[in-house]
Amino acid sequence: MDSLTLMNSLWVMLGAILVIFMQAGFILLEAGSTRMKNAGHIAGKTVFTFGIASIVFWAVGYGFIFGKNGNFFVGMSDFFYSGYEIDGLSLSTSVFFVFQLAFAGVSLAIAFAGFAERAKLSVYLIFSVLFTALVYPVVAHWIWGGGWLSEHGKQDFAGSTVVHLTGAMAALAATILLKPRIGKYNKDGSVNNIYGHNQVYTALGVLILWVGWFGFNAGSTITVEDGFFGFVALNTNLAAGAGAVSALIISWIAGGKADIPTMLNGALAGLVAITASCAFVDTWAAVVIGLIAGILVYFSMKFFDKVKIDDPIYCLSVHGVAGVWGTLSTGFFATPELATIGNPGLFYGGGFTQLGIQALGVFTSGLYAFVVSFVILAVMKKLLNGLRVTEEEEMIGLDLSEHGVYGYPEAFESNEQKLGS
Amino acid sequence: MGNPYKQLKEWRNSHLQKAKTVTELNSIHDQVMKQSFHLSFEIVKKKYGPAPCEFTWFLVGSGGRGEQAKISDQDHGLIFHSNEKEALDYFLLLGKEVSFGLNVIGYPYCEGNVMCSTSLWCRSEQSWSKQINKWLQDETFDSIRYLLIFFDARMIIGQSESIHRLKNQIFQYIQYNPDFLGRLLNNTMHVKKGVGIFHQLLPETYGPHSGAIDLKQAGLLPYINSVRLLAIKERLLDTSTLSRFQLLMKQEYFRHVLSPYHTYFQELVTIHFKNSLKANTYDEVHYLSLKDLSKEEKGRLKKIILGGKKLMNETKSIIEKGVNP
């Protein structure tokens, strides 16, 4: 192995580790944004669903995305990958595999944000398998695996569409089928804010994700050549910062309060949006993309609440709406020098060509992810006699109903028990 | 014996519906509370004999200011003129019956326990004087709150003199410790935002009152708190916000400064009163739905809410500069 290949492998391995560590960010983000009675369940399911995703991705996911002899939807080789090297890659194939696996795991974690606080444990188990086998690989194949969208020159550097929008569309299907949590809406149609139990967890989760994103975006360069990963990391950080700032300002201007959860979602929205465009745009454009993402996320959060779609972690806004915006943004801002795939954007004399390709990619990928996830979940609903735990179970919390023990046992011990012990 | 409060409860419910102004409404509340106290007193007298000494029962909160809405909780205290332990025991028993009776009649218990059924709000005058002194010295968040609450005390049964003596004690302290007014000011400076930076109304966004403005927190309280502070500064004993306004405005300086805010406040009280007539629960009383307002009404409401904020700033600068008319 020559030294460049070795360096590339090391760099991408570091990226893979960072992206896998993003699961820790999701645990804190999701647990902090929900109630204490579900905290242990949320933390635990994030770990075991990543385990399921790893095995399924090894068995079929990777082959569907990158395999040869493919059809319109997927590739058809390299199943049960055994660690062999594939010719023509500038890094170790097994490192590339682990890196790709980490992305599939992130997409699944995003999807599960839409299930929070009400789905049965069995739903998590089964959907982990089906999403990692049938939903994620198809979109990833279309855009990254040599499928029809990559032939059109669709720009999605690290996965605003592939990872984030796909996850968010599955989450949308789930929130629609699961229906809102008990207590989210009043009889007169007004909305209640079900506050998360620990804002510090939520903020820490966001910060871990932010750091993990350097693996996600800068790692997606796949090579250390020319040090281009530094530029990608710079754009990533700028967009995250801009998203946090604009979301805080808009929440203060429009709602009268400098809202912390909105600001945190703004940072994430900036990161999601820049994911597609981080390698194709100038630094000033990264700031603009992040600023717009932060504003969009605020109005999107309000919108979903209003149309009675209960999205507990606001993943539809953060990963869905910002994912769409991020993918379209290269159609505006991609520069001729940086657009190594596709064409320059509208603001650089590229006309509407790239914007059209981006829109087509968002629409078809989003539609596929939504429809297939919806069908899978609708069938599961029928077979499992409902996707949702019973009303009583939801009230006592999933920690107890699904796992038999609370994540915070002392907090829920009754006085009686304390006296008795 | 049946429920002694039942008849009074029925009378109250039928008469409150008929009130056409805030003054009328509060005069009914006063009558009901007075009558309820007498019923409670009779019950206690039958069980434990007559009161061991003279006493004064007073209201605080919106009742003390004569600004109660149709539905309102109970806030009150009691001063008795004896230092015997038996007197305290007797008046605490009376206090418990009074609170119970008011709750039966339709004034829910005060969540903050500002009721003469608690030893904090049921004391001999000497003990009250010591307590007020302690609150003045402590300068903690709670003690400042209690002083501000006490400052709205209005006699319902007994004599006003004891209340006035205790309030004068506060005035005297402030005369020698003028910085204390600043402490009182800081305690009331935080106000719920009702209007955003683009001059848009900021209704509730979540919960059963979504789309409605919290008239008490965003509207009334800035006026009530500001005028109370100015009244303390000017050593005024009246408790209603409107009469505090009027007394302050007898002075040339305040007439000039307060005139527009006085008009805004009168208007706000009317809006609040009319809106509260529609309410069915204590929770609903203060929320005004923006859906029912015309463009002009919304514009006026914005001016009134912003007026409250401006008045707070004026009050702050008057107190911080120690301006004397």
Automatic annotation (TrEMBL), chain A:
Membrane topology: Multi-pass membrane protein
Keyword Transport part of the UniProt annotation: yes
An example molecular function term from Gene Ontology annotations: ammonium channel activity
GO BP of this protein: ammonium homeostasis
Keyword Transport applies: yes
Subcellular location: Cell membrane; Membrane
InterPro entries xrefs: Ammonium/urea_transptr (IPR029020), Ammonium_transpt (IPR001905), Ammonium_transpt_CS (IPR018047), NH4_transpt_AmtB-like_dom (IPR024041), RhesusRHD (IPR002229)
Transmembrane segments: 6-30, 42-65, 95-116, 123-145, 157-178, 199-216, 228-253, 260-277, 283-301, 313-335, 355-379
Cross-referenced Gene3D superfamilies: Ammonium transporter AmtB like domains
Keyword annotations from UniProtKB, A to Z: Ammonia transport, Membrane, Transmembrane, Transmembrane helix, Transport
Main location group: membrane
GO cellular component, one term: plasma membrane
NCBIfam families, alphabetized: amt
Similarity comment: family membership: Belongs to the ammonia transporter channel (TC 1.A.11.2) family.
Listed name of the protein: Ammonium transporter
Organism of this sequence: Aeribacillus pallidus
From TrEMBL, chain B:
Superkingdom of origin organism: Bacteria
Residues annotated as domain Protein-PII uridylyltransferase N-terminal: 9-140
Every DUF294 domain range: 178-312
Molecular function in Gene Ontology: [protein-PII] uridylyltransferase activity
Record's signal peptide: none
Protein name: CBS domain-containing protein
Originating species: Aeribacillus pallidus
Lineage: Bacteria, Bacillati, Bacillota, Bacilli, Bacillales
